[in-house]
Structures are given as C-alpha cells and as structure tokens.
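User: Earlier you gave me the apo prediction for this protein. Now I'd like the version with zinc ion bound, so I can compare the two side by side. Same sequence as before, with the ligand SMILES added.
Assistant: Got it. Here's the input I'm using:
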Amino acid sequence: MSRDRKAQVRTCVSCRSNKDKSELIRVVRRPDRTVGLDETMREPGRGAYICKDVDCLAKAKKRGTLKRSLAVELDEEMYERLERAVGKTG
Ligand SMILES: [Zn+2]
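And here is the structure of the complex with zinc ion:
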C-alpha cells in the first residue's frame, strides 16, 4: 500500500469529516490568545480546521464549535473574516 505523503488529512471541527488540508481553512489561537485566520497553515498556536464551506461555517458558529475547540471567544468580525475566506472558492 502506497501512501501519498503530500496528502495531509485533517478533521473539520464542525462536520467531523476528514479532508485534505487544501480543502480546509485553519483558524489559529496564537500564543497571545488572539485568534487569526492562518493562511499559511503553519502559524504556531492551537489550530482548528474547518471546511471551505459556508454552511459548515454557519453550523460551527451556531453551535460554538470553533470557540470550544480553540477555548477562546470568537467575535463577529472574526466570523465575518472566516465567511469571506470560505466564500472564495477555488
Ligand atoms: Zn466541515
């Protein structure tokens, strides 16, 4: 069995499906406890992955999945940034 070493599968915190990192966005809680959108996918800090899917993000927002996963509050502005990030396809 061959393994594709480029495939890096992560679990979406909202729908719990396993996807390749390229299909997810990473939200990071930095060491100073600020929350950011990690476009490099390699910022230090605690990360949570979520699908590039507006419905999936809406569900996470409604249920508070992201803040529970990161153990930090996410403000409205952060959700808006995320919505823009997942909304741009491709
Ligand atoms: Zn998802």
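For your comparison, keep in mind: Residues 9-87 form a domain with the Hypothetical Cytosolic Protein; Chain: A; fold (CATH 3.30.1230.10).
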